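[job 0417] fold request received: Organic hydroperoxide resistance protein
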Amino acid sequence: MDALYTAVATATHGRDGRAYSSDGKLDLELGIPVEMGGNGQGTNPEQLFAAGYSACFASALGLVGRAAKVDVSDAAVTAEVGIGKQGEGFALAVTLRVELPESVDAETGRKLIEQAHQVCPYSNATRGNIPVELVVE
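[job 0417] inference complete; emitting structure tokens
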């Protein structure tokens, strides 16, 4: 792969620290969610992953929609990223909820979402590694 762009970010002190990008556009406090025994102050890696995945998937959906001449520009993608114990470690699971414009029929929408799942870099990175459920809303 020839990278078109490389994002660079650094995290200090793990889930209870700080994350920042090399260009200074991202600089935030990290915190452990209350559900995992933290104080809930700051964002967490799962929220960051959910934001990145939903944005990337929405872009992939737009790409396949344009190729199919179907306007999905008003679609909304919500990513739910769960974390839980698996064996001695932890694992992730993702649900992508896609709300399509009313002008897109269910069959066409489902096909476009499946196509987007094949071209989205996040989907390609997670395929075979974590469960990803696609839900049309």
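[job 0417] notes: Residues 1 and 121 are 12 Å apart (CA to CA). The first helix runs from residue 45 to 67.
[job 0417] exit 0
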